User: Fold Asparagine synthetase B from Dyadobacter linearis.
Amino acid sequence: MKPERIKPVIRLIVPLIIFMAISFKGMSNRILIPMDDSQKNHLKAYGISFWILKTFEMEMDWLLNYRGGSFMVNYTQQFASEMTVRGVSFEVISEGQAGQILNQISAPDVNMDAVKLQKAPKVAVYSPKSKLPWDDAVTLVLTYAEIPYDVIYDEEVLSTKLPEYDWLHLHHEDFTGQFGKFYQYKDFPWYREQKKEAEETANKFQFANVPQMKQAVAKKIAEFVSGGGYMFAMCNATDTFDITLAAEGIDIVDAMYDGTPADPTANSKLNYDNTFAFKDFKTIPYPYEIEFSDIDNQPDERGLLESNDFFSLFQFSAKWDPVPSMLTQNHKTLIKGFLGQTTAFKNRLIKPEVIILAENKPAKEARYIHSTHGKGFFTFYGGHDPEDYQHRVGEEPTDLNLHPNSAGYRLILNNILFPAAKKKKLKT
Assistant:
């Protein structure tokens, strides 16, 4: 080749070599998002992981039991910049270091595993459109973590909207149709608005009353889970969901809610075969007692104060029980308790096939449970707000800027990423 032709070729090749070297360097690195005590913002770390899955459809590794359940993904400058902006701690590691971590995790005598996260679930929150005098921990943490979600309610569930989603959260909700048993607040504007909205929807769908409509909604949600959906519920959405399923065709509410008195023999007719998690419970029909059944462990039964109210996460085999392992990833194993209209579940009333993920042993109560239903999964988490011990009606919502490392809120977000995991045969 003539010398005068070599120079233009070199001008083309040299930048190409440099570009390929830079690209190779970027491709050969990984980003490790630690989830141990070194993480500055655990909650936003979930949000950044969700963002990567949803926006770029790029696989990630969830490193179960490795440094608090860390995440690992291929390096890009865009990812690193976004983590910096959101205040999420991360480490850039080489491909060789990543391989060493994966080898360590794969050792048969180590209780760790790497799970592939593949596709971000489409998230819905079941919640009334009207403003209520209490917040919801899940919507608070989804908003803080910058995880997108849609709000749906009875009308959407009773139509054809629900199958569009992968993951459903049940807001602080009373599926028995007794409006939370807050009858003493019947003259408050928020109570009247909630009642009016429910009655209008019941009329639209030709139900005789709100309790009948709520039971139909619960059955639709049960069908969603049975068909392969993921359901997460907190506070009194947990026990009231099972109560209304067990009470199909039975009047368990007083006249102020449906126009007829409750069936005095209702408890002898409950069908526990219809329920997700609970068995052998009895409903509490008294309209002025803010309790739905004996599932919930009451303060006098618990014998606990805020100073000694803690619950412990169980340790599961990451290689053999990946689902409960994912749901219990945390940088803490002892988590401070918190109250709710439904705080905790009596162990003796939980079905044997349900996995207890966390419990308070002295109180003989479960705080966090999980199981399958048909082709799908459900998780129940007792209590109202993990960072507000006794949230009262009308109080200001929790500012999660003050709790970026909340171990209690992490359990909620474990459930958000769990549906993104690559499906494989499970032992549970």
Remarks:
- Residues 14-26 have pLDDT under 50 and may be disordered.
- The longest helix spans residues 3-27.
- The domain at 3-117 is CATH 3.30.70.790 (Alpha-Beta Plaits).
- The chain has two domains: 3-117, 123-420.
